[in-house]
Design goal:
The protein has 149 residues and is an alpha/beta fold. It has helices spanning 13-23, 43-50, 66-79, 96-101, 124-133, and strands at 2-7, 30-37, 55-57, 84-88, 106-110, 142-145. The chain has a six-stranded mixed beta sheet, sandwiched between helices. It is globular.
Length: 149
């Protein structure tokens, strides 16, 4: 059984879809061990709490330095013996130390084909609005391994 930790900062639509598909048996051999968020008031946290999914809030209000935040994230991931980290609308950079430790075990879901509509400012509905504004004939999603580049 692959142990998954989801990272989300906002609405959590991808997190909810992953959870529902695991619950319905459409994704087998996987379980969600928790949700990590920097935003205690986001809809992803609300969904997790309503579905008995352990939540971890890791942000600058709870950790004094970036090093403290990184240490807390590693502590959670090691405690839960995580096999896969899924960034599903997570709005923070993953520290290099974690990327190095979990090489080929971190995937990101981005709501467009990369590199188009990627980078600072392109997330969530902003991506979709930009695609519509540019009158693109089609769009898609990118799912990729996270690295330090």
């Amino acid at each position: 059984m692959k142990k998954i930790m989801i990272f989300a900062s906002g609405g959590g639509s991808n997190f909810i879809a992953i959870h529902k598909n695991i619950s319905e048996g459409k994704i087998s051999n996987a379980c969600i061990k928790g949700l990590i968020s920097n935003n205690a008031k986001c809809d992803a946290v609300l969904y997790a709490n309503n579905n008995n999914i352990k939540t971890y809030i890791v942000n600058s209000a709870r950790c004094k330095t970036d090093e403290d935040m990184c240490g807390r994230l590693i502590e959670i991931l090691e405690e839960q013996k995580i096999d896969l980290l899924i960034l599903a609308g997570y709005m923070k950079l993953i520290p290099e130390k974690i990327v190095d430790k979990y090489k080929k075990q971190i995937i990101n879901i981005h709501p467009s084909y990369l590199p188009e509509y990627g980078g600072q400012g392109y997330y969530g509905l902003r991506v979709h609005r930009a695609v519509l504004k540019d009158k693109k004939d089609y769009t898609g999603v990118s799912v990729h391994y996270v690295n330090n580049e």
